[in-house]
Amino acid sequence: MMKTPVAGRFLTIYSVIVTIALAMSLMAFRNLHESFEEISVKRINIVDDAGRSRLVISNQEKMPPPVIGGKTYKRAVAPAGLVFYDEQGNECGGIALSANEKLGMRALAFDYSNADAIGLFSREDKDGSNYEAALVINDRGPLDKIGNNQNRIILHTANGKAGLTFNGPDGRARLRIGVDSTGNPVFETLDAKGVVTKRFATAKK
């Protein structure tokens, strides 16, 4: 079939446009691998080859809701920070930086598949009246239940007091070892109802 002059010009223009578009695309892909000294963004999503999130860095406004067992839940507090995801796209830990008009809180957490596992946090009232820092270790609950975990160990300092608490499978304190704000050591055992059954304390010399 013979090409008309109009058709020939159209193909020529089309070829030029496609060539320019391909060249621009190649330049764009090349630029993706370039280095930057500084970049300002509200959120960065790191995904795997299947498009599933593996790491999200976000401000508080863009922080994604938690995903556990493939289901999305409402986040109690929307902090700025990082969120880690497992191979199925479920949240499995993160770093949170949050604050309100009364206090500020910083936390690092790693999770079981269905609940919080271990956390490291600091909390401080903005008026300076109270402060606390702690390492929290939890048991995992049944896999078919979300968030049904129990706290077992707390190592913390709060307002000048330092302590280590061991909890039973029900999450109730059974043994407490600490040093009060004046430097006096304290040792306590508790029953299942939380009543102190034995207490040993020595005054600082």
Q: Which helices and strands occur, and which strands form pairs?
A:
Blueprint: H1 5-32, E1 43-47, E2 53-58, E3 67-68, E4 71-72, E5 80-85, E6 91-99, E7 103-111, E8 116-125, E9 131-139, E10 150-158, E11 161-167, E12 173-179, E13 185-190, E14 196-201
Antiparallel strand pairs: 1-2, 2-5, 3-4, 5-6, 6-7, 7-8, 8-9, 9-10, 10-11, 11-12, 12-13, 13-14
Overview of the molecule:
With 205 residues, the protein is mainly beta. The chain has one helix and 14 strands. It has one helix at 5-32; strands at residues 43-47, 53-58, 67-68, 71-72, 80-85, 91-99, 103-111, 116-125, 131-139, 150-158, 161-167, 173-179, 185-190, 196-201. It has a twelve-stranded antiparallel beta sheet, with no helix packed on it. Strands 3-4 form a two-stranded antiparallel sheet. Strand 6 (91-99) and strand 7 form a beta hairpin.
Approximate strand percentage: over 45%
Order of helices and strands: HEEEEEEEEEEEEEE
Rg of Cα set: 28 Å
The global form is elongated
What's the N-to-C terminus distance?
108 Å
Backbone structural class: mainly beta
Q: What proportion of the residues is helical, as a percent range?
A: 10-25%
Parts with pLDDT < 50 across at least 5 consecutive residues = none
The largest pleated sheet is described as: 12 strands, antiparallel
Q: What integer is the average pLDDT?
A: 87
Question: What's the number of helices?
Answer: 1
